TrEMBL record:
Keyword Cell membrane part of the UniProt annotation: yes
InterPro entries: LeuE-type
GO biological process per UniProt: cysteine export across plasma membrane
GO CC annotations on file: plasma membrane
Record-given protein name: Cysteine/O-acetylserine efflux protein
Protein species of origin: BD1-7 clade bacterium
Species classification: Bacteria, Pseudomonadati, Pseudomonadota, Gammaproteobacteria, Cellvibrionales
A UniProt-annotated Pfam family: LysE
Length: 174
């Protein structure tokens, strides 16, 4: 998604998306570290609700990517990049984010170890910032290959297809 945002809108217009990913994921890791995942143990129906939201949001994002039309000029691209709050919210319905958060915290911290939780959040925040910016920059570079409407459509269809394909593990897990 960040690569598609970089390709379709450029780095500057992707900043809210980048910021939402970084802050949203760090907040999620911190709250998971403090024990919020216990809600899913106490209320298993929340797992089903999370799956429904995850699938719905992934389909919505795929639709957004399909609707983004870049004329080759990132300053005049139609459609809107993902907003700060949408990127932040996505972290909470992203199964990969939950897996990373639980794994990192399980290896490095316990709910009673607030210093350990803070260290995990800081390390993840730094790596997330570098990674998110790298994906957007990669998208900006790949835009050179997307010099025709056909190539841009194929690119957007591939990204949207990847988002839709990421639903399969969620469905198989149910």
């Amino acid at each position: 998604m960040l690569m598609a945002s970089g390709a379709n809108y450029g780095w500057r217009k992707s900043l809210p998306h980048i910021s939402g990913v970084i802050i949203g994921f760090c907040l999620m890791v911190m709250l998971v570290g403090l024990g919020v995942e216990q809600l899913f143990v106490q209320y298993p129906q929340l797992n089903t609700l999370l799956r429904v939201f995850s699938i719905s949001f992934l389909l919505y994002l795929a639709w957004r990517v399909l609707r983004s039309h870049n004329s080759g000029n990132q300053e005049t691209a139609t459609g809107q990049p993902i907003t700060f709050f949408q990127a932040m919210a996505f972290q909470w319905v992203n199964p990969k984010a939950w897996t990373i958060a639980l794994t990192a915290l399980g290896m490095a911290a316990t709910p009673a170890d607030q210093h350990g939780i803070l260290m995990v959040v800081l390390v993840i925040g730094v790596f997330n910032a570098v990674s998110a910016n790298a994906w957007v920059c990669f998208g900006q570079q790949i835009v050179r290959l997307l010099s025709t409407d056909r190539n841009r459509r194929v690119f957007n269809y591939c990204v949207a297809g990847g988002l839709v394909a990421s639903i399969v593990p969620i469905l198989l897990e149910a």
